[in-house]
Fold this protein.
Amino acid sequence: MRILLVEDDRMLGDGLQAGLTQAGYAVDWLRDGEAAVAALSTETFAAVVLDLGLPKRDGLSVLQWLRGRHDATPVLILTARDQLEDKVRGLDLGADDYVLKPFDLDEIAARLRALERRAHGRPEPVLAVGEIELNPAARTVTRAGQAVELTPREFDLLQVLLQNADHVLTRRALEEQLYTWNEAVDSNALEVHVHHLRRKLGNELIRTVRGVGYMASSTSAPA
Amino acid sequence: MNGAAPYSLRRRLVWLLTGTVAAIWLLSALLVYQRAHHQADVLLDAQLTQVADTLLAIVAGGEVEHFVEELHESSRHNPVPVAYEVWHSKHGKWQRLVTSTGHSGFVSGVAPGFSEHLHLGARWRFYAVQDEDAEYRVVVGQAHAARAGLAREIGLSLLIPAGLALPLMALAIWGAVGRSLRPVETLARQVSALDARALAPLDESPALPKEIAPLRAALNALIRRVTEAFDNERRFTADAAHELRTPLAALKVQAQVALRAQTADSQQHALAQVIAGVDRMTHLVEQLLTLARVDPARREIAPPLDPAEIIASVCAELLPQARRQGQSLTADAAPGCTIAVTAAWLQIALRNLVDNALRYAGEGARIEVRLARSGSDCVITVADDGPGVAPALRSQLSARFVRGEVEGEGCGLGLSIVARIATLSQAKLELSDGLPRADGGYGFAATLRFSSTSSQTRSDPAG
């Protein structure tokens, strides 16, 4: 899952990027409000972790701009401001969650998972399609109750596909959600990961929509 | 409260006003008395001469016996206001001829004209006149007391109503002063109702007399100043707490990352970050303590000093840091500048300015500390050829916890500390373009402008 981290403090940003990467996220880290607006206007992120006190453009202004263009990307605000009116204002401007510094990495990761879940309209924490079940918190996958070993990248790809089950995802959309700017993407990397997933989970789950992309489908009958 | 017994303004005013009026009244009664006395003298002297002249004319007319009888008769009904005697000279010897009723004889030998003699134990005024042949002499006399009595009567006629009016006046003043002082009581009630923890300016809507309104205005100005200082401190505490949260969050996150790191490299990196984070928090806490230490209450009366030595010691202290960062740090201090400033504060201010330059000017930068005279001022400038600060941003820099756009490990307190020291030392902090860079731009410069001790008299507190 690719998320955008906007935090001006170098040490905190560095730590969050490392910590959230450990938790399985692809994290792009920006350090000012203008850069965040530029990134959000061209790319899609599963969620945004937004600090409020940012140089060049304040976090709340970034949030306002984002909601102003009807972008529903989940936004989690990180802030040192603990006044009630600050929280109310942030949430009223369209923030989905509000975490006060200092915080726990696990809490941020859990809140991000909750945000993604809600963004996809799922109340239950486990993603399930057919006999495949994916637990984002534990980062485990089972097939008919049997644990399946996946690499982190395979897991992320499967998670994106399952979150958008029965929707076709283009190659570009998938790549955008899996890779940060700092990662070089091989032209056939996606095919390789899909191939491995099919080998581990069966051929029926992931369908190739020729010329468009991929889709996870609960109906096992291939066309 | 120096222990002086409080006095009643009302009582004092009543005494002062009635006393003054009574004194004025008494003085005018005295003047009236004197004037009346004088008038009585003139009037009664005229009466004396008139009576004497008339008597002499009658006596000289040779009808003495007849006249005397008539006079006696008439004076029984209409007493003549004066006593008189008629003398007759026979063969050079004076003989008393007639005496007014009820009088034993006057002193003998009253010379013609006005004179005063003791008569019957009292002072009398006499007037004597004689005919051309010195045959008859008439002496008229009047007790002096009559004149004084007349004057006293006139004087008293003025004093008696005053005596009645004074108590009434005192009562009226008592009431009027009480009424006039009522706004003061109202004000006192308002002030005593103030809550020290939530100071709010007094309600300015009730109209106050011109003499008391300035008191309320001054009180309100004081309340506003105190509230502002309170708010400032409260905001500072809140800001400081916020500023501590971010480095704390960074520490926690980095420590968690280190715990979970799967490679030695990433663990090392995270742990190094933890140590750097602790250093950073140490710096922040030290700066907070410094800011707290620069307290007006701790200000020492500073003897004039030459800043050159302090500049040299600060540069020497920070030179190793500059060397590590490949920066050049030079000091150029002109001799002969003396300023009145607390030495420890000047040291703190300079260290912060140089430290700021070292932090923000970047590697390989040139930093210059200059001490110069400018007119009657002593000017200390710390200039660098780093990236500089946009003029629009400069004014915000001395606010607490504001950092420039440039990357740095600062906590945003350095310039606040310098600005506070400048204010308390009656110096001016000016932020401007610094040294020229190779690319044509300018670095950053901070200048402390002290008025030299020779011209301290005209300097006034800046805050």
